[in-house]
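Homework-ish question, so no full write-ups if that breaks the rules, but can someone show me the predicted structure for this set?
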Amino acid sequence: MAVIETKNLTYTYPGGTGPSISDVSIKIEKGEFTLITGPSGCGKTTLCRCFNGLIPHFYQGEMKGEVTITDLNVTEHPIYEIARHVGLVFQNPENQLFALSVEKDVAFGLENLGVPREEMRKKVDWALQLTGIYDLRERAPHELSGGQQQRVAIASVLAMQPQVIVLDEPTSFLDPLSAKKIFEVIREMNRNLGITVVLVEHRLDLTARYADHIIIMDKGNVVLDGDPHEVLRSEEARLIGVGIPKATRLYQMLGKDGVKLGDTVPLSSGEIAKLLKEAFKSR
Amino acid sequence: MIEVKGVHFTYPNGIEAVKGISLTIENGEFVAIMGQNGAGKTTLVKHFNGLLKPTKGQVLVDGVDTTKVSVATLSRNVGFVFQNPDHQLFSETVEEEIAFALRNFGFNGEIIEKRITWALNLLALTQYRKTSPFMLSGGERKRVALASVLAWDPKMLIMDEPTIGQDYEQKEKLRQFILQMKTQQKTVITVTHDVEFVAECNPRVLLMREGKIIADGEAGKILTDREILAQASIVPPQIAQIFLELPTLNLPKDVINVYEAQKILLNLLEKGAK
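A: Not a homework solution, just the prediction itself:
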């Protein structure tokens, strides 16, 4: 069952000279981990804003086509209703945080849903611990570093355990090890709780391995859409200017040199290392 | 040249972010400063243009003690691009944003015009010349912030996380621009978490942890040293990881570049075939 579906979606910001996304038709299935990528300014962030009703309700502008999120048509339902099902982590955490303490920020969404106090306490602590900011719970979010703020923004969304989590470059300020841990937490929630994840990222070296589904955009259009092993195999992905993982690139380069390392394109160091081991064994 | 001599820095809230750092960065060097969140990277580089003054120790920029001159004077030679562009941008249009510092430094109208056109072109922003920076995407705003600093052509350039929100093509352009600055004997210092970008640029790498420098050397050497990287919360770049996962092949230890990896593996496979 599709949890997110767009049909011929075209959107122009108020005062925009042309559409930021045009004729986008995609389907994201329940429980999928979807990666959306493409060159800077290709419309990734705009598309995400359609997934929780920020477009058209907040940004207004001109929207054509249809967006259905968990069976709700976004134009017919207000943001607060869609927000129960879809949690969005913004690119810039400063735009998202507002409470006087980290704990209050993380609890805010649950309070609004009227979750009982005891249960709320449990969920907030759980989210703070998962994201490694339990010790910061009494600090003011605006005093924290960019990386810490990103963890708070992620924790506030995780605490709600929505059906769908949409994350727009959620770890850009974090150090590589912390970023990896956060992606693993998200992957676990996706696997264990069946939460549908939509991740916007440029850094495929870090993230391609987690994805079941990849969508590549360019100039407002969806140009490639499918299984990551298939999509990243195509030369087109690289030509659009997508930074495909180095493991994939190495596989392609060796392929051109006449070294065939099996039919499945590797997306991570582990995958290509396995293929290389086999190649060396058979020589 | 930047000389850092026994520098300590304590914030007013009592947190000591830099704990005794000494180092020298020569003209024409490209340095990447990496490490865990909160390791003191940004605090350290803010000393290089006088935004922060050491609590103890001394920072000399081209021989001048940063406590003896104003930030405005230092900025003429040392450009600083902040991590979050929203902390830097304030003008109505992209063009105005770039013109601002140029006017402050007293460039004439003709030069200002030329520099704006040059910087917009370099950073693929020409189409946004008359647009408000706040209408742009995160990645584009970051480039506006960079353009506004590059336009005045500082001798030293400090960039805090320049690759955030940038796609592959923009990163490649940035890399080429940095190489060009190097050939002009200009100094580039970047704070970054982007290991893949560092692996492609091959700069001198400084690793920081808890206010101290724990490693200083060539990218190939440091980004393949798993133990020291773990201490700084860094994951090796993907090419290094691939080689680390093939211990039985006796591959060279310091490879971080995809072309080099290709050459080495091809050689080995051909040898094996014979």
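Now go work out the reasoning yourself. Hint: Chain A touches chain B through 49 residues (CB under 8 Å).
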